[in-house]
Design a protein that fits this description.
extended; two-stranded antiparallel ribbon; single chain; mainly alpha; 8 helices; 64% helix
Length: 228
Amino acid sequence: MSMSMKKVLASAKKVMHPNSRKSIAITKKTKRITNREKLKLGNAMKQNLIGEKMLWIQENMLPDVCPYTPQLADELVKKYMARNDEELEQISIKHSIGGRKNRQHASREDILRMTKKNEEAEYDTCGIEIPDIFNPAQCEMLRKWDGELRYLPNFKFTRFGKNHLLKAMRYSVKPAKKSVTKSGDETLDKLMAETHGKDSTDDKVTSNRSGTSDAHSEKDKPCFMEVE
């Protein structure tokens, strides 16, 4: 029991009417403290689960790979989802020996199967949330992490799902666009063709101008008539 709850209960030693204002205030305060304690406990359990996941990933990371590629990240996530397969197999073997009617370790088996089912559903939809091992700084930080839960806010978490990793793998193997390079002979031929076309055009324009000027000169000549 927390100190806040003890103080509230200590203040209610006297017998009071259940509908009095003081009794109602004590009930509200007790309920508020209980909800706060439940929230703290839930956050602590969530942090412990995240810490266990990160420790498993840290122990199963490749030693000389940082950051991870999409293909290696996909293999690591699939390996994480199959981490309890060996234990499930041992439980099933125990059930098959001796023709036992009762399921031994039934609760443990149900928990493992439910956990794997939920993780596979997350992998196929939104993705499993782990530290961003695509980021070199985050990957190196995860390698050096000593398991202290107080350092969890320093990590950047991201979700790795089936569709996201497939897209990342396709993008990583996408061939680069080839740049078209022209040889020196092709470039020279093109320049010569352009120059030749320009020269022929200039010649046409010059001839047209000369023809027009000759016509104007003949037109402008004075006309002389012989007078008898």
